[in-house]
Amino acid sequence: MKKFNNDFMMGAATAAHQVEGNNIYSDFWTMEQVPHSMYKEPSLEAVDHYNKFKEDIQLLVDVGLNTYRFSIEWARIEPTKGDFDKKEIEHYREVLEFCHQKNVTPIVTLHHFSSPKWLIIEGGWESESTINYFENYSRYVVSELGDLIPYICTINEANMGKQIAKIIKRMTDTNGTNQTQKVDSGDIQVGLNVDMKEKMENYYRALGEAFGMDPRNIQTFHNPRTDNGERIIMECHEKARSVIKEINPAIKVGITFSLYDHQALHGGEAFVEQEQHEDFLNYLPYLQEDDFLGVQNYSRKIHGPEGVIKPDEGTRLTKMGYEYYPEALGNVIRFVSKHWDKPIIVTENGLSTDHDEERVEFIERALTGVHQCMDEGIDVIGYTYWSLLDNFEWQLGYDQTFGLIAVDRTTQTRHPKESLSFLGNVKKSGLNR
């Protein structure tokens, strides 16, 4: 029996825009609503977590879990530039206080993909001014709520824009054949509609009208990012960390990254080294004063002499098109630990499937890898499964089912899955193997 100690943080994660509903001041709300939208459907009420958060956290508590990672929505806190909404900060105070009442450790993310619409109009994530705007937002949240927050992730998947840039490059790369390369949904760890080239022109024209600006200047967090944008993201992180430590030095501060388990066949070693550098290693100079690192992993990529090798027809895939490979998590933790000697929190790990027994198996195998890493002396202090609830998977809408809890969106009724109880039993009793 492999047991996790009592202090180990185990639970589940959500993101505000994906679960709360009616995030009307955000850039994503705008992008979902425009004509020719690349989004399969709009988020609308999502799964109404904004109003049902107590019920949802209680379901987590009832099975024995002790940690909840969630994001505070910047577009709610600052719906227009410089105007902070006291009612909304009090909402998140209520969420945090409920966590503490239930002995649940809250891990708060300040930015999880969605941004205020006004921020994009001001230049978005390629604009120098965003550094100051994010600093001001962080200062307000931590000044108001910092005494209730033990852990803060400043930015979720800070490397996502770079990963999307590589995907877009592959989509538009003709390799001299005038045929664009096929890109699969499993190529990136986020709900991105990759069948989009022919629709993009109409979509961006509509976006330009909705944002009132040249669509070429619209820079959301999910836009392909330049090197300058990469710097801006990481300086946002540094400014937020500085503010947090100034206001409340006891808060543990980190950031999260989307990390694949990159594996090399003979001849693929250089590709793996390049991917590991681009995904993680080049960010290390910005992280030296962080307290922990958030690792987010869903699958692996295998590289040969020509680059990524696509899974063959017999490969077991998840509903998102990733290879079903729970062992990737342990491998990624080991890779990170070679370059990072502070605590690691698995801030996301999971799969989309219509068969919950696959999720149970996935969790067991992934957590076996986590436990092995801890036995090897790696300082892993927490694991939050993605996601607590079936939710809005960005451009792919509501079809993807990552959750430990199913939701009937016609009534917003919760239906806990066996995997929720299984994860709780692992926390209480350990792994069977």
UniProtKB/TrEMBL annotation:
It comes from Aquibacillus halophilus. The keyword Protein biosynthesis does not apply. Pfam families: Glyco_hydro_1 (PF00232). GO terms for biological process: carbohydrate catabolic process. One of its GO terms (molecular function) is beta-glucosidase activity. Keywords: Glycosidase, Hydrolase. Belongs to the glycosyl hydrolase 1 family. GO terms for cellular component: cytosol. The active site is at residue 348. The keyword Nucleotide-binding does not apply. This is Family 1 glycosylhydrolase. It comes from the Bacteria.
